[in-house]
Amino acid sequence: MGPLLASLTTAFAIVLVSAISAAKGLALENEKMLGADGMHRDGVSRASLPSMVNAGISLMAYMTNHFASHLLRQWLRVYVLRSRVALYHLLTFFYALFFASSNPAFVVIPILQSVLFTTYFPSSYTNAMLNTTLQKHGFSLIARQDSNTGYISVLDNERDGFRVMRCDHSLLGGEWTSPRGHASRLREPIYAIFVMLEAVRLVEPTSEISRAQRVQESALVVGLGIGTTPSALVAHGVDTTIVEIDPVVHAFASQYFNLPANHTSIIDDAVAFVERSRREKQYDYIIHDVFTGGAEPIDLFTVEFLHGLKDMLKPEGIIAINYAGDLRLRSASMVVRTVLSVFETCRLFREEGQRGEAAGTDFTNLVLFCRKVAGSFRFRQATREDFLGSQARQHHLPPRYEVDPEYLTKRYGNDIITKRNSRELEKAQYQGALGHWKVMRSVLPDAVWENW
């Protein structure tokens, strides 16, 4: 009911004000065009005008609202103004400016209602209202902001002692805030998958020469989340560069999840960054972790983009690509087949053991460890130093559940993802997004998702 009520009291109010203002303007023009005999100067009778005007107003209101929203989202560069609530208020302002109403209540009342009583509007008052609801379920809102990838928020579970970052209807990561009974150099992550990505460091070099060349290791991380993997790489002394498109995600990771400052941050679209930098620098490790909201940024899974990452990988380097989804769906097959078409050698590991056929779905995180040179590779035995004093890393750092690539590649034909056919992946993601939403509903209470 929350989104419905918000729309009724914001977007619907704007459309209503638009229609009323437009109706008044058209009515005045029509009166000017009417003759003494009640006939319009163009030969239309007075009786037929209301239905024509109403139809025209309805169509104009819809088109104006849709077109203006699209233009504002494309042109506005200040991300707070691109939020859904801010766009409603901007449109209200312009409508009030250009279609002045004799009754200001039509404009003022929806704005006051939204600011004072809609918890989706970010203010200290509405934050307090929202926390009153969330605290009944053991959660509290720490921070939130609309940004260029969606609605970003940080939530604490005070009952169980953990913190998460949310982007729309997905979780970007989380960590335990209460002591876990041991000394860890980093906060313990609540999701094992981000620990498994650190296993790029465990891949054994193929020769002593390449081992010696790793005196000062470097890593490129595409997609930040809360920063679990890059924080560990920095702790191991790896020169780490992070590419993150969302400035709010980076700011929240730094402020609320202790992302270390001694890294290179690139706030930019990864496609543009890779295109600019693919010939400039190479890395020992690349982490590709960009899943959010039940779908993947399609441009970051195309053959063209993956070839760019391949160019940025050293000859003995290793890339870890995280894919989250239902492995029984076509979208998973397309992604895996595309990755295997670019990199010479890959090994696939899932987050946990395979579900039985009776489960109906096989939603999990799948990590593809790949190299740009031919030949098999293996992971060395993890040491105490690799674990950083973390119990989660002791249990989940070494990859355990290997997957035969044919489990995914032999399904749904032979298509791979390119710039030209990327819409095929978009179509295939719909079912996976619904499955992801069901999973997310089991992770946090409904009230948390519904109340933002």
Please explain how this structure is put together.
It is a single chain. This protein is α/β, with parallel strands linked by helices. 43% of the residues lie in helices and 18% in strands. It is built from 18 helices and 12 strands. The strands form 2 sheets. The chain has an 8-stranded mixed beta sheet with strand order 7-6-5-8-9-11-10-12, with helices on both faces. Strands 1-2-3-4 form a 4-stranded antiparallel beta sheet, with helices on both faces. Helix 2 crosses helix 3, helix 2 runs parallel beside helix 4 and helix 13 packs across helix 17. The radius of gyration is 27 Å and the shape is globular.
Continuous helix count: 18
Shape field: globular
Structural class: alpha/beta
Question: Helicity, in percent?
Answer: 40-55%
Mean pLDDT: 81
Give a summary of the structure in a few sentences.
It contains 18 helices and 12 strands.
Produce the secondary structure layout:
Elements: H1 2-9, H2 11-33, H3 49-75, H4 84-98, H5 105-117, H6 124-134, E1 139-147, E2 150-157, E3 162-167, E4 170-176, H7 193-196, H8 208-212, E5 218-222, H9 228-235, E6 239-244, H10 247-256, E7 264-267, H11 270-277, E8 283-288, H12 303-311, E9 313-326, H13 330-342, E10 345-350, E11 363-371, H14 384-387, H15 391-396, E12 401-403, H16 406-409, H17 422-443, H18 446-451
Parallel strand pairs: 5-6, 5-8, 6-7, 8-9
Antiparallel strand pairs: 1-2, 2-3, 3-4, 9-11, 10-11, 10-12
Helix pairs in contact: 2-3, 2-4, 12-13, 13-17
Summary tags:
452 residues, alpha/beta, eight-stranded mixed beta sheet, four-stranded antiparallel beta sheet, 12 strands
